[in-house]
Amino acid sequence: MSDSEDESPDRQLKLVVMGDGASGKTSLCMRYSQEQFSKQYGQTVGLDFYLKRINLQGSMNVALQVWDIGGQTLGGTMLSNYIFGAHGVLLVYDITNYSSFENLDDWYAAVKKVCGTGPMPHMALVGNKSDLEHMRTVKSDKHQKFAQDHNMMSYFISAKTGDSVSLCFQKIAADILQVKLTKPEVEQHQRVVKAEVIDTNNSYAASSKKQQRGQPKSSLCIIT
Ligand SMILES: Nc1nc2c(ncn2[C@@H]2O[C@H](COP(=O)(O)OP(=O)(O)OP(=O)(O)O)[C@@H](O)[C@H]2O)c(=O)[nH]1
Ligand SMILES: [Mg+2]
């Protein structure tokens, strides 16, 4: 157990992760809390909890209580209870699935309903599966407009590669607690750039003009 785990946290935050089924909420939570990813889809029934202890500015210990809400709960009677008391809400959609983006209106409305005329929690728009950029169906400007219209912070992440996952949570926690992340903190949570060699003959790049012209088979180095 690390020193920070021994100490009781200075602050505890409830973060609720919501959005359509299969948008990658559980994958995001698993990546963040356990550095794991599974290609298999197991639908979340109701909700799951994750706990992550982080440190802000080297001095503030924060316990993040992450509530992973099953996509099927939209319209159900329990959803309001799950949202109640949230400090932050992550509205997650899949950038390759347009309807998961469209349905964010309903997820947003569910949060609004719980808050009534009171203050809204910190809201973050999270476009997941950024590793599937070549299959994107939600244009980036639509994403930005939604974030602006709803006064939300906005992120593109990949639960699969881990890209921007840690930084996203770190920034959300810092924003809620109104502290500024230091440059070293931002760098620390930015994922280390790694090169992955993929076989272009089995990837989307296989249909590129280069291949069509019958050029020799090759491997492509992608920076993720
Ligand atoms: N390529 C890719 N696949 C992902 C990513 N995140 C999740 N997936 C896949 O998408 C599928 C659904 O992921 P889940 O995390 O179970 O989705 P969920 O939002 O929790 O779904 P519900 O529990 O039904 O609400 C799984 O097959 C994951 O492997 C990602 O960043 N990239
Ligand atoms: Mg799930």
UniProtKB/TrEMBL annotation:
SUPFAM superfamilies registered for this protein in UniProt: P-loop containing nucleoside triphosphate hydrolases
Matching InterPro entries: P-loop_NTPase (IPR027417), Small_GTP-bd (IPR005225), Small_GTPase (IPR001806)
Taxonomic superkingdom: Eukaryota
Similarity-based family: Belongs to the small GTPase superfamily. Rab family.
NCBIfam families registered for this protein in UniProt: small_GTP (TIGR00231)
Statement: the UniProt record of this protein carries the keyword Zinc: no
Record protein name field: Ras-related protein Rab-28
Residue span of region Disordered: 204-224
GO MF entries: GTP binding; GTPase activity
Keywords: Nucleotide-binding
Keyword Nucleotide-binding: yes
Composition skew (Polar residues), residue ranges: 204-218
